[in-house]
Amino acid sequence: MFFDRPESGELAVLVHLELSAVDNPEDPREFEELALSAGADPVAFIFGQRSSPDPRTFVGRGKLEEIQRTVKEHGAQLVIFDHNLSPSQERNVERELKCRVLDRTGLILDIFAQRARTHEGKLQVELAQLRHMATRLVRGWTHLERQKGGIGLRGPGETQLETDRRLLRARIDSIEKKLGKVRRQREQGRRARSRSELATVSLVGYTNAGKSTLFNRLSDAEVYVRDQLFATLDPTMRRVELPNVGQMILADTVGFVSHLPHRLVEAFRATLEEAANATLLLHVVDAAADDRLALMDEVQLVLEEIGAAELPQLLVYNKIDLLQDMAPRIDRDADGVPRAVWLSAATGAGCDLLVEAIAERLGEQMVRGQLVVAPDQSRLRAQLFEMNAVQREEYRDNGDCALQVLLPRNDLQRLLAPYREAQGAPRWQPLDD
């Protein structure tokens, strides 16, 4: 935006270091997938080991020379590090290699920028990019860091660097105000869904676990699906009818990734709040992944950061078509409550079991029955229709309205509470399923 920098190319050299001081290292395979998702064409993958990063160039002198030789040999224009570099480290490495250098956060930001489709998604990505750029602004303007003397260069006024910082701050403030408006609109939508008592089920999970494929399978939607990281950025919602439960809202959300940059979590807070306010979370797991337990832990860390770790969860082990001799099934706890479903969203095998499990989890406190409402209790009838709880309605000769309803037990008790002491209270009769 404000940089005089080399144009990026697709030929890229990937760099991954094993750091003994890091307890939870990055996965080199995931790093390569991230690079491919960004459109890079990796020509070399350089590995190394260090006890801790070099404070000046992250890698040591010998490894830096190896990278330099590799860049020249392949004519690469881009070097991507599977680590987060400080602004000074990124600047020093660029100066040595004479090509563009990108760290892990910058790589993920670039992928997000390519995937954003909606106005909100683009605003969120731009905010994260600007915040990231603000720490690195000095790189492009070291020659204008301070006013120099000389003919035509003396006098008051801002340096170019100060001007760019001011413009960045103004743009960041503008985007934050727009996203604040989006957050308020989302909150209004959630309140409206809460008033109508529609349960919200949010799909969460590691990126490329198959959430959007499962979303399409359950909702007959046409959400963008592709076998790549971060194929979905913008949340999508659909009403879905569940047997014996009624309607619910199904929400597809952005995928998580290990060490998700904090700037992205902050920028996408409005989107992630859809997961934080869900009635039930469907934690979609790639059952064929060798490190699926570690990936599940990473998802839990992000859920904790957005305040959603304590919400009810139903595990969904997807991609069983990639496993040998694995049939769809529901795993239950000692009380018979569904805790996990094994299925394949790609083939549809086991999706009926998932619907059954969701219905059971959402219907744990559901009651079905007939409620007879007198003509002067039309407000109660209107409330039941507003909650989408009415399944059938019949009028009797005396003007009474017989409603067959399905709703949470707590809501039924709340609605009937004002009529308990009244003459001619509504008559409730449970119905067998």
Q: What do these coordinates show?
A:
- With about 425 residues, the chain is an alpha/beta fold.
- Helices cover about 40% and strands about 20% of the residues.
- It has helices at about 30-35, 60-75, 85-95, 105-115, 120-135, 160-195, 210-220, 260-265, 270-275, 290-305, 350-360, 380-385, 410-415, and strands spanning about 10-20, 40-50, 80, 100, 200-205, 235-240, 245-250, 280-285, 315-320, 330, 340, 365-375, 390-395, 400-410, 425-430.
- A seven-stranded mixed sheet has the order 6-7-5-8-9-11-10, with helices on both faces. Strands 2-1-3-4 form a four-stranded parallel sheet, with helices on both faces.
- Strand 1 (about 10-20), helix 1 (about 30-35) and strand 2 (about 40-50) form a beta-alpha-beta unit.
- The termini are far apart.
- About 30% of the residues are buried.
Give the topology, please.
Elements: E1 11-19, H1 28-37, E2 41-50, H2 61-74, E3 78-81, H3 87-97, E4 100-102, H4 104-115, H5 119-134, H6 160-195, E5 199-205, H7 211-219, E6 236-242, E7 246-252, H8 262-267, H9 269-276, E8 280-286, H10 292-305, E9 313-318, E10 329-332, E11 338-342, H11 351-362, E12 366-373, H12 378-386, E13 390-395, E14 401-408, H13 409-416, E15 427-430
Parallel strand pairs: 1-2, 1-3, 3-4, 5-7, 5-8, 8-9, 9-11
Antiparallel strand pairs: 6-7, 10-11, 12-14, 12-15, 13-14
Helix pairs in contact: 1-4, 4-5, 5-6
